[in-house]
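Hey, quick one: can you model this chain's 3D structure?
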Amino acid sequence: MLKISMRWILFFSMAIIAQRLLPGLDFLAAGILVCLEEQNPVQTTIVTLLTLLIQEGTGNMDFGACVLRYTAFAAVFLSGRRLFGSHALLFWLFLCAVLGPIHYGMTCLSANLQNIDVLPLTLDKECFFQTILMPIIWKIMMLLKPETPEHAYSD
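Sure thing. Here's the predicted structure for all 155 residues.
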């Protein structure tokens, strides 16, 4: 339990610092995807709630934009896992290729509804880097994962 807690404290600390240094990129989304892969419902719920509180509390959009984005991320993740299996490289390439456009679409939708101007070139860069960085963050999180039996969270 302590290893898991320290892992998530380290993750949240590093993700918040990274988001401060690179605004517009969502480093916290990788935590939700890692939780979904590990199939631990309690951990997924806690990490998702903390992530939503951080994102919604520090963002400049009205409440709900992150909820929509993370719901879309989870739906794509669960669908892709059924098609490819969550440990396959093809699955993570598919997931990363879809997360960028979801980020773009949700940001444009939320900004439009709130009359916030979005610079298309900046948003394009954010989505590109989001697509590139997600597998790197995921791999780092997998390296920090404490050892658990393979059958612990199996379907």
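One thing worth noting: DSSP finds six helices and no strands in the chain.
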